[in-house]
Structure formats: structure tokens, C-alpha cells
Amino acid sequence: MAFSLKNFIHSLGPKSLPRILQIQSGFYDEGSMYEKLGHECCLSTGDVIKVAALEIKKILASNLGGEDASIQSTTVALPLNFPGLCRVMADKTPYINVEEIVNKVWIGPTQQEQPCFCCSKDIQVENLTIKQGEKIVFMSVEDHNETLTVNCEIKRDGQVHAFLLPRSQEGDFYECQDDRIYTLEEIAQWKIPKSRTREVLFLNTGDAGQSPELLPKSFGSCVILEAIYEVHAVMKFQKEIVHFHSDLDVEVEDVTDHYNIHTFLQPLSVKDVLEKAGTGSPFVVATDSGFDHTLVSLDF
Fold this sequence. Notes:
Blueprint (H helix, E strand, L loop, with lengths): L1 E3 H7 L7 E7 L1 E2 L3 H6 L4 E2 L4 E15 L12 E4 L6 E4 L6 E3 H7 L11 E4 L3 E3 L2 E3 L5 E9 L2 E10 L2 E8 L3 E6 L5 E3 H7 L7 E7 L17 E14 L6 E4 L5 E4 L11 E3 L1 H8 L6 E5 L6 E5 L1
Antiparallel strand pairs: 1-20, 2-5, 2-20, 3-4, 5-6, 5-18, 7-16, 7-17, 8-15, 9-12, 9-15, 10-11, 12-13, 13-14, 17-18, 18-19, 21-23, 22-23
Pfam families: CABIT
GO biological process, one term: T cell receptor signaling pathway
Family: Belongs to the themis family.
């Protein structure tokens, strides 16, 4: 099944990489985008690429027009270092189970990176009943007795109760309102779920007045944010890793299950290998006699 590149990339979590994609409708650019990124690339129908890494490069901000017909829907690109501060608005669309939360929402070690949800029904865990609407803090994900679970806690009557939720736990989980203040870069890193957008309230865009074209005054303070990723990919037997943005008008199909992930080898000279060895990062090499000169292939 073919998907738009944007929808597919935005559905991937960091643990799902690498993935192998086949281009279903090609895109060719003589270099205007790739020259800016330091690489040239041609994505043609039928090409197979390995997506090795994703990196958020910019944020699209939309005002969506609203009910006021005189305000046109507008979308602008904001850099990650945009100086405005903002507050996250709770997502009104529920998650149908804990597994969906784990797959789409960032859960990190610090308090700012630990999302909070409430369930639309009571949940019985161990000797504790989590009441409908009670605030649940998702602390971390771990392998508990060979089963992936989420470490959670609730605060009740001044006491903290810790418990585990299995990924299979069903129920409509609604995001709780978060009153913390974030920079745009923090929102991009932690607060935009996979396959979703994020509504935020800008609290202070005074410093942004130095670049008024970035966030037009017609936007108001409440905007919808969407992440645009830079895709780091490998094409067969090409030396350089290619970079392109996830919003290219390209359709792709996930063919990971039909390809050997190790067939995507990066040909390097001995000099290239020695340079990479100096970075301290481990990698695997193999000699390749299929070229006019002795090369090694890098597998990562």
C-alpha cells in the first residue's frame, strides 16, 4: 500500500528505524533543495532507499482561519530557534489504548518529558483502582517480565501511588492540560505526537518582532504546529547519505519485510574508513572486490 512520504515519515517512531521504502511516484530536482543541504539526489519511481534517521528541521504554523470568515487560513514555516514562548493545549482526540500512547507520544526521563493522561473509565491495576478522570503520569517504558509496560503514578490525598500499565490496556485516554511554558524547540522535541499536530498558545512573541514575517499578526496567539522532518537515507551503493524533507510530493511503500536490511552498504575507500574510525563510533566493514579499486562497505 502506498502512502504519501509525509504521512509515512510522520508515523514512524525512533525505534522503528531503519525502514526500507520503494518510491511509487518519483520526484526529481536539479538541486535547489539538495544544494542547500549539501547533497544532490534524484528520487525516481521504483528506487529503493533505506531511511536511517529522522531529524526535525522546521515547524509549520497554521492559524486555520477560525470562525471569522475574514481571516484566511495561512501557514508559515518557523525555525526551531524561534524566540516565542508557548503553552501546550490539551489534545481533544483520545488515544484508544496505552500502546498508541507509547508509539506516538514522547516519554522521557525529566518531569517536562512525562505526559499526563486521564482515562474515560475506571482501571483496575494490582490492588489499586484508577478512577475515571484521575490524572495519570506516564513516567517511563520498560521491559517487565518480558512484557513492555509503562511505569505510572497518581497523586491521591497527598500520597503518590506507583503502578504498571501494560501496553495492551484499553480505554479512551485523554491528554491532561499542561500549564508549563516551553520554547518552540522543546515543543518540537517532546510535545508533537507522531501523526498528529499540536495546538499551542503563544505567550510572548515580542522578541519575534525582529522577524515579523515569521509569524504574521493576523495569526493571533493560538496556532497549530506540525513538524517537518529531514530524512537521512541511503541509496544502494552510493557513498553519501542523502537528505530530503518529509513534505516532498512523493508516494512510498514500506518494503522492509521484503529486503535484507544489510544490502544497503555504503562503499568507502580505505581513507574514508580511517577518517570514520577517528570519530570513535563503531561500525562494520567488509572488503568488496566488485570495483576497479579496492573498496570497503560500511554497514550501519
